[in-house]
Design goal:
mainly alpha, 3 helices, 0% strand
């Protein structure tokens, strides 16, 4: 989990923007959404192949 320390003379809004950027870069929210619900193996395989087809 990213950690942000508010610097001297820095507003809370700027620190929050920096924190959000660090969280996005680390992929924390995407990882949470990925593990939010259970997918059966067959359905996971199907989604993976559909995504590969879309990318190609």
């Amino acid at each position: 989990m990213p950690k942000t320390v508010v610097r001297d003379g820095e507003t809370l809004d700027i620190a929050m923007k920096r924190f959000k950027r660090q969280v996005n870069k680390a992929g924390t929210i995407q990882d949470y959404r990925k593990h939010d619900f259970f997918l059966k193996k067959g359905l996971k395989r199907k989604l993976k192949s559909e995504n590969a087809r879309r990318k190609h």
